[in-house]
Sequence to fold (1139 residues):
Amino acid sequence: MASPKLCRRTQLKTYLPTKFIVERDQDRCIQCGVCIRQCGWGVHELDEEDGVVRSHDELCRACHRCVSFCPTGALNIRENTLSYRRNANWRGEVIEDILRQAESGGILLTGMGNDKEYPIYWDHLLLNASQVTNPSIDPLREPMELRTYLGAKPDGLEVDPRTLEVKTPLSSQVGLEVPIMFSAMSFGAISFNVHEALARAATEAGTLYNTGEGGLDRRLYGYGDHTIVQVASGRFGVHQDYLDVGRAIEIKIGQGAKPGIGGHLPGEKVSADVAATRMIPRGTDALSPAPHHDIYSIEDLAQLIYALKEATNYSKPVGVKIAAVHNAAAIASGVVRAGADYVALDGLRGATGAAPKVIRDNVGIPIELALASVDRRLRQEGIRNRASIVVGGGIRNSGDVIKAIALGADVVYIATAALIAIGCHVCQSCHTGRCSWGISTTDPYLAKRINPDIATRRLVNLLRGWSLEIKEMLGGMGINALESLRGNRLHLRAVGLTEAEMNILGVRPAGS
Amino acid sequence: MFDNQMRANPYGDDKVMAACSIFGMIDTSGKRVGGQGVIRAIANMHDRSNGLGGGFGIYGLYPELSEQYALHVMYGDRASQRAVEEYLRESFDVVHEEEIPCRRQARVHKPPLLRRYFVDVGSHAAFGQGDDDYVVQRVMEINGGSHDAFVFSSGKDMGVFKGVGYPEDVADFFRLDEYQGYLWTAHGRFPTNSQAWWGGAHPFSLLDLTVVHNGEISSYGSNKAYLEMYDYQCTLQTDTEVIAYALDLLLRRHRLPIELAAKVLAAPLWSEIDRLEPRERALYIAMRQTYGSLLMNGPFTIIVARQGEMIGLTDRIRLRPLTAAIKDDLFFLSSEESAIRLISPDLDRIWTPLGGEPLVARVRSREAAGLEEALVA
Amino acid sequence: MAGITATKTLTIDAAGVYYRELNARLREATEQGYERIELYNVNGQRYIGTNLRRPVEIVIHGTPGNDLAAFADGLRITVHGNAQDGCGNTMNGGEIVIHGRAGDILGYSMRGGRIFVRDDVGYRAAIHMKEYGDQKPVIVVGGSAQHFVGEYMAGGTLVLLDLEGRGHQAEALGTGMHGGLIYIRGHIDKRQLGREVGVEEPSPEEFAGLRALLADYAQRFDLDLDAIVSQPFLKLYPQSLRPYGRLYAY
Fold:
């Protein structure tokens, strides 16, 4: 492929400063050329005349691929210390966004999740441990149950006393061995090898992964039992086989990174495989409309939920994914009443392959607040058991997972964390399609870098590590079954939050 | 201290969210018909609602007491009833009052006490105040007051019957099969909070204006702020209430014809206004400038009814369905065609109207005029 | 009579039957090998034709409810009456013939098969129709369509005939179109079209293909093909496969 450059659609000279400086220790550099080959943006180049590798700093994205793969550790990346006169309002990033817009006249795009300094409520919540009055449980020696079931539960059970047969009709449940699933990332936004690794890791760990809105490559149909097939507004790759093969179906209404708007996979990323899976011609843009055009009102959502249930004989859970926004509680209540078997909430920090920067950074609310209010509202309505709650949007570690469960979630979705596990350094350049790590690209030269065997191993390791930590924390709280933590806010205390925030979270201040 | 606002919106959401099925039927010859057809029609759209609200509006309902304001009131307790009845007797000449006849075994949820009063304003109004204004004020006082009481119908020779249940069950409860009217509207609700309250169901009414509504208004905040300037108290915190008050303001107080009022709520796009000829263009620019805060943004289909008149209107980009049909003197509006076919398998004409274009059907005057002429489409 | 296999037909009276039961009976009938099912007194039942795994023929008398043939593949459905909203939603293949009109959102995200409508259709027909390989969906409307028809069209063929000559009323036609073709019989104003839409006359090859399609259409409704093709046609096409290519700054 030709030497890639940042897309500049005009001939205007750029006023944008270089963001990152590549530091090359010339004593260590052996001119092996690995960095030249590894960089997706062509930062490094061999100077033919003097045989020295030089770097075009202005192209560097700080993805650290070259740093990781340099055999002699000769490379480092640092922020360019170009100083602006200090200004709390007109910060460097604000200035540069304006320059970028002046040079392009377009919507500024970015990748991954909101990076702004909104409060991270997970970091203000502290967990309990049992002492004296109630023993902690040692997970190394005693059973610690993380299994959970995704799906609608009945209000009560009617059992025939003689035969012990359950007479209440039970809707389909999906058993998960860990309360963590891989969140939706579409094929096209990420490469096939990553999809394969997610499928295999989910299968090995006893959980599910989500196809995202790009359809499902037939090579992955074998992992169908561990697949959530997504039906998004573009309906890419949605046909009967697709619906049949999945273990659950998810209607995607919105996502945390870009609530309210549609999706746009540029034609460059629609490779032959992506085209085949999405069933659109190669090289055309894959446009997802902002709304589902058959969902303009809550009764329309009910109509689509039941259309999918009819299409699959009521045999699998149909969930609905919404972005966490104002009035999330009322919306979630409506979604549950419309017949959804689970509600997936995606918070402000949810990531994406491409989104308008202004929307990613300004639209939506933190998942912690949305989760707490949705859980509370469903309980107040008496309908909490009619649907499971799945949350995502910046879940970083097992501590976040435990706190989410305590706030009321059944399961959490992770995506950024999963990609970091296989190499992503959150450089926010996914939208360029040049990911050096081979993750958020469909360019075959780059995408083949993800070895599915290795990636699977790393993802399984992540889930295993977190599961062990969760067990330790549960044991520490004197709990040996996940059900006993779900919605149990008494095991949380808050530090450094306002009274309003604590009220919404339903958590008392530490010390009380 | 009792608060209907809390009742309507117990969680303090920005507003109550709901969606639904709607239906309307008018006999433009003025002939009164029973409700069996309308009840079957709205029942056929069962899956559009969730059993937490249903209601009907009936016109030509009380021929023997057609000159009186017929107040339908729901009470949470006897003490409230006594207090409000005392207030009613002080404020009006009560010609007749009774319990609203009900079928107790119908499948509705916790019915309140229900009574109706046929009243005259007589000499109670202040000097220079019209009877209608006087009634509106009294109704707003009761509904915003401290008793567990809610006036849910306040027009002449018409009435609203609504509650918490599927519309067919609400009809059963109120024995609507025993009434007749020349105009029927019906609604099935899908609200998102279970503490649905009888007063929150549709139709929403003010005097003889009733509104049934399918959709959700994203401009609610602006609309509400504007209407509050004109002394409308948005106690119910629903879109429907705001639509009804907007129409009351535009039609009754500002005396705009319905065709223009519709163009306030579903304003034409600026690109369309720019293409009009100068006089019309000036009118629509002035309307959008003056009444821009009443533009209803978001999906909606509404059926509005007044004495002798039924109006259908959708938002300007027709995000909610509406099917219209004609058979002889009958004019129908419905969320789904199949509901109309249950009443009249044969139809002279059936179509889906354009967004933002009001359909108005009126009971024609004594002169024999064709239905087509009575229709503004 | 030798050599003739009778089509195994089932008749169902759908009056008062809830959609779940009706559709369960349809599934059962197809599994039992019925090849043709006639439904009478249909009135508002949803999802008729969804989840039927055999290429059966279904004849509907009455008004089928929303989402007729949603996600369906390979069926032959005839409606003697009007269809409501969502007909052919995400349909993958098969044929629907409607002797009447259809409501809103006809053929949303359709990716294969054909829908023929005798009369008008409502808003938002053919949104995001798409094609892949030899799956090329087709919608032909005998009357006219209302606004936002063909929005985001990504593939397939849409034909609006306006046989009664009342004039095409649709506005914002083909907004965001980036694939497929729309044929308009008669006249349309440029201002009725989305910015992404180009207008030209069909080439002789294109017209021949269109004519063949209309021959099928005319045969279904017993119409005179010559009368249909006697009026000139316009071809609407996407000016770009990347209509929003300049929208973003990377």
